[in-house]
Amino acid sequence: MGNLIKAEIRKTLSTKSWWGLMIPAVLFAFLFALGWGAITNDLNDFLGSSDAEELAGLLGVQLGELPVGLLALAHGINIGTMFPVIFGVFALAGEYSKKTITTTFLTAPNRMSALSAKMFTYIGWGVVYGIIIVAFASLATVLTVDSAGLPTAGQWLGVLGAGILATTLATLFGIGVGAVWNSVTGATITLTIWMLVVENVLVFVSFGWFGITWLGGVLPNGTLNGIVGAIGAEAFGAAGVSVPGALDEDLQWLLQYTAGAPGAFSWWAAALIFLAWTMLFFIGGWAANQRRDIT
Amino acid sequence: MHDGSGRIAVQNLTKQFGAVTAVQNLSFTVEPGSVTGFLGPNGAGKTTTLRMLLGLVTPTAGTATINGRPHHQLGNPARVVGAVLENEGFHPKRTARNHLRVYAAAIGVPDQRVDEMLGLVGLSPAADRKAGGFSLGMRQRLALATALLGDPQVLVLDEPSNGLDPEGIAWLRSFLRSFAQQGRTVLVSSHLLSEVEQTIDQVVIVSAGMTRYYGPLDQLRASQRSRVLVQPADANGLVTALQEAGLHQVEPTQDGRVAVSGATVQQIGDIAAKAGIAVYGMQEEKADLEQLFFQLTSPQYGAGATAYPPQQQPYQQQQEWNAPPPGYQQPGQPPQQPYQQTPPPGFQQQPGQQPGQQPGQQQGWGGQQ
Ligand SMILES: Nc1ncnc2c1ncn2[C@@H]1O[C@H](COP(=O)(O)OP(=O)(O)OP(=O)(O)O)[C@@H](O)[C@H]1O
Ligand SMILES: [Mg+2]
Predict the structure, then answer these.
(1) Strand order in the sheet with B226-232
(2) Could you list the residue ranges that cross the membrane (chain A) (predicted)?
């Protein structure tokens, strides 16, 4: 297994995709955190003064002391997480499209070990992506959010951990989708459209028309975003913890949405549900790979 | 674990791609110490068979083993079998050296082996160029270098001379021969008999997914129908004399000569002399091996569909071979027990054979080094 992991590391380092996707990941994470940091800095303006005051009162804090920096962090990290997903798609589907999969299978004891080596290697890559994305989102947050609105060190560490968890699972999710549907272009385009457009529309429509608040808490993009986003939402009493005198359901959803995690139950619930999505595709992809004819 | 024999065994192998039967009940074995040609026209099922042997395609029925094991049970398979396949995949943006370094790591051989193999196939000058910019012949060389990384005991090649220049073809021929002479196994596919004729000693001929002939090439060659063209003073007299002597395969040719089959030049000369007929010339004519190959494989696009029994009758195809000239078949020898090749002394695989000694390592390919 050590040999195969070494081979996988060499594979990724000898082509451009790892930094070709790292650059936009960093850029988007930085810019989104910058933008959200600028908007949410004045939560009064953003939420409307009555809602914000009601919230602050419920949480027993001054309005200006809400850790709005968490919102900026979450949005930056969430958009950046798109790229490890695509990077994961390249891992296996890329080998199919370039036909290198033939040699990969010829030099591995069996297909299962080839796939496992990929999984371990890309866990490492997911961690690298996570650290870098969180770092740039943090930088943008510090640049835009007033010091009163910055999260505590503990919250920040939580975001780092959740961010790494999210990018790692995102990478594995990408591998799984690419293993099921071994087309880089097809899988990448579909995933991008799904995660950026389709799922958001579904979540919005079901909330706006049917009052369904939980949908974002179970779908892949929602749960992936929820891992980091729920930390912010929890800090605002909009997820996980029960707030005395409970928030109005609509305000709660709005706050979750603002935190980048509409419908998220809690960060760990989001992580578990997204892990289930990852496993679903991973196992499906693994099964498809065991039998697939390489011609 | 595998038995280290270097033997390839294909048994009752069948592959169905939806409605297409690519390979139908194919059986043959390949012994170490020889180069075996795997011949058949386009679409005969050669590539599919080799890919099943290498574990890339799952057979619908039957087995294909190397060293007594299917590919996924070989342990570190690249150390047992190396493969050069058609349209081998290289990442277009990865350099030749990096490509080899990736798979050297996977196999677990030292990186120095990468440069050795690049030198062996004559790609050293192009080592740091991206494989996407390689010519067809250069890609074939890189594929061969990849196949040899693990110093395998068995080499499987699918149309390896595609795109090679004459020098490359000549080099590959001698390389494969010396590889086999070390007691290793070579199975090489081609759709042209003439292309591999000088390289191979055994041959498996397939057509429409079925075996048409397999055994030593010499046997195939020996069975060629030869005839002697005689130019006598008195053609009718000669025909009568020959028939009296018991030679009945006699027919006149358009240019007034007499074509005699089943007799040597000496025999005919003696008979003519005895009959007092002057002979002005005799010419021995051998049927082309290629023609023979064509005969064996031609039913694929002709009566093939009806002339051959359905697959549930395993061996019948043998008897139904499209009437190869007498002596071609190996009656009573089911495909599982083919011609037993006894490797010449010294060719036998030694248990302690040193890995790392590649044939022709000293003299690389092409003067490009
Ligand atoms: N993936 C596939 N799906 C459907 N049919 C296939 C597939 N691969 C091969 N075939 C069919 O199987 C048959 C055998 O193909 P194969 O590639 O094994 O032939 P071949 O002997 O290698 O031919 P060639 O000399 O042209 O390389 C052909 O009819 C081909 O169309
Ligand atoms: Mg072929």
Answers:
(1) B250-252, B258-261, B226-232, B279-286
(2) 21-39, 68-93, 120-144, 156-181, 193-215, 265-288
Q: Using CA atoms, how far apart are residues A79 and A32, in angstroms rounded to an integer? A: 7
Asked, for residue B362, whether it belongs to a domain, the answer is no
Q: Per the CB < 8 Å rule, is B51 touching A295?
A: yes
Ranges assigned E (strand) in B89-194: 154-158, 185-190
Q: Cβ contact (<8 Å) for A295 and B57?
A: yes
Shortest-distance atom of ligand 1 to CA A293: 1
Whether ipTM > 0.95 holds is: no
Sort B284 into a burial class: Cβ within 10 Å, 0-12 / 13-18 / 19+.
Answer: exposed
User: Of B67, B7, B33, nearest to B345 (Cα)?
Assistant: B33
Atom 2, ligand 1: residue with shortest CA distance? B17
Residue B127: both structure tokens together: 């080592």
- Same domain for B172 and B26: yes
| pLDDT (tens digit per residue) in B5-15 | 889 999 999 99
CATH (domain of B258): 3.30.70.100
Q: Does pLDDT of B182 surpass 80?
A: yes
CATH of the domain at B47: 3.40.50.300
CA nearest neighbour of A50 among A38, A69, A63: A63
CA distance B237 to B275: 8
Same domain? B30 vs B88: yes
Instruction: Report yes or no on B267 lying in a domain.
Output: yes
More confident residue, A252 or B51: B51
Domains in chain B: how many in total? 2
Residue B59: pLDDT band (50, 70, 90) is very high
Q: Last residue of a domain, which of B175, B192, B222?
A: B222
Residues A206-234, mean pLDDT to the nearest whole number: 84
B119 lies in a domain? yes
CA-based nearest residue in chain B for residue A16: B93
B16 lines ligand 1 (CB under 6 A): no
Within-domain flag for B313 = no
Is residue B360 in contact with ligand 1, taking CB distance under 6 Å? no
Same domain, B146 and B19: yes
Question: Exposure of A81 by Cβ count < 10 A (0-12 exposed, 13-18 middle, 19+ buried)?
Answer: buried
> Across the interface, which of B55, B76, B98 has its CB nearest the CB of A105?
B55
Give me the pLDDT at residue B3, please: 85
- Give residue B165's Cα distance to chain centre: 20
Strand B81-84 relative to strand B154-158, pairing? parallel
